[in-house]
Amino acid sequence: MTDLLSTLPYARFLGLASAQEGDVLTVTMPFADKLIGNPVLPALHGGSTAAMLELTAVAQVALLYPRLKLPRPINVTVAYLRSGRPVDVHARARISKAGKRVAHVQAEAWQDDPDNPIASLSAHFLVAGNDF
Predict the structure, then answer these.
(1) Structure pTM?
(2) What is the DSSP string of 92-107?
(3) For residue 86, is the peptide bond before it cis, meaning its omega torsion is within 30 degrees of 0?
(4) Closest C-alpha among 18, 42, 20 to residue 32
(5) Based on the structure, what is the number of domains in the chain?
(6) What is the pLDDT of residues 62-84, one digit of tens each?
(7) C-alpha span between 33 and 28 (Å, rounded)
(8) What is the distance between the alpha carbons of residues 82 and 124, in angstroms, rounded to a whole number?
(9) CATH number of 121's domain
(10) CA–CA gap between residue 8 and residue 16 (Å, rounded)
(11) Residue pLDDT, tens place only, 97-115
């Protein structure tokens, strides 16, 4: 899956890297000054956190359901649970239900402790056909 993230320009911009253990993919976004959204706190920009979660979900779906095309988002909802500090962020996604055409994915991002996520994602992806 590292190859997939390296082919996506925004994943490269965010510096995303992945590690795979079996069917579980963990994506890391190393801290960089360009990711700061609020320099007063400082806090990570919500858009970079959301993008990381969405790309993690796409990579997890692509890993478990390889297709010729990438899974396409149908809808994405992100909940921001706490401010992201200026340190590395990690994320994992799990597919809660997958059919022939659509997969429902949930993902969480955390910094120091997976039990204290900074954001979560719930999304549906088109996994077959890829034609709207």
Answers:
(1) 0.92
(2) EEEEEEE-SSEEEEEE
(3) no
(4) 42
(5) 1
(6) 988 877 678 999 999 999 999 99
(7) 16
(8) 24
(9) 3.10.129.10
(10) 10
(11) 988 889 999 999 999 999 9
